[in-house]
Amino acid sequence: GGAKPLAGRTAVVTSGPTHEPIDPVRYIANRSSGRQGHAIAAALARLGADVTLVSGPVTIPDPKGVKVIHVEQAAEMLDAVLARLPADIAVMVAAVADWRVATLNTEKIKKQPGEGPPPLMLTENPDILKTVGHSDKRPTVVVGFAAETQDVESNGRVKLQKKGADLIVANDVSPETGIMGGTRNSVKLITAEGIEAWPDLSKEDVADRLAGWIATRLT
Ligand code: C5P
């Protein structure tokens, strides 16, 4: 029940890590449970939005009321997101790997006795948030996350500009916070207008409040 302020609106949300293959059995990845992104997708749907969640590999179940597209690599995530535009809302929560292996090994790299470890040449992945934020089909509300271990506020401000976002949700992911992989989150909202610190909340409560913030911003 409840009000549906996002009825008739479309949203695309990214969540989880990406896996960038090194060879058929190995990959490079960031840490991400997908909990926060999945909760945001569900919260937007509860407010009436037509939500597509583009998820990297996670172990948590697909959220209810949401169309889920499962991807593995950043390039696939970007394609899936761009295919959903135009949309009213984009919330990019995924912990996208910054780099992938430049030339894919189609066979498993074998240990070579006496030769030491193989060198890995990396190349930069596309920045999905930045691409969406500067797209000619840019959604009305573009939200990004910033997982920082220091200078949360100043790094968030720089990110807001660089990525073309309306809002950066910044959090301190220092190991002692327990946020990575945990169920709670303590965030700061950084916009062109300033900074707002939210109290320590469950990831579900952060998601509900964020969906409300987005609905207010859109109307
Ligand atoms: O630059 P940084 O990785 O700290 O930025 C984090 C924000 O940018 C998050 O919203 C993340 O989902 C997004 N991002 C992205 N594609 C990348 C890297 C980050 O969408 N390749």
How would you explain this protein's 3D organization?
The chain is an alpha/beta fold and 219 residues long. It has 5 helices and 14 strands. The protein has helices at 35-46, 74-83, 128-133, 152-163, 203-218, and strands spanning 10-15, 19-23, 26-29, 50-55, 67-70, 89-92, 99-101, 122-124, 141-148, 167-172, 184-185, 187-191, 194-197, 201-202. An 8-stranded mixed β-sheet has the order 5-4-1-6-9-10-12-13, with helices on both faces. The chain has a two-stranded antiparallel ribbon with strand order 2-3. Strand 12 (187-191) and strand 13 (194-197) form a beta hairpin. Helix 1 packs across helix 5. The radius of gyration is 18 Å and the shape is globular. Cytidine-5'-monophosphate is lined by residues 14, 74, 92-94, 96, 125, 127-129, 144-146, 159.
What is the topology?
Elements lengths: L9 E6 L3 E5 L2 E4 L5 H12 L3 E6 L11 E4 L3 H10 L5 E4 L6 E3 L20 E3 L3 H6 L7 E8 L3 H12 L3 E6 L11 E2 L1 E5 L2 E4 L3 E2 H16 L1
Helix pairs in contact: 1-5
The chain binds cytidine-5'-monophosphate.
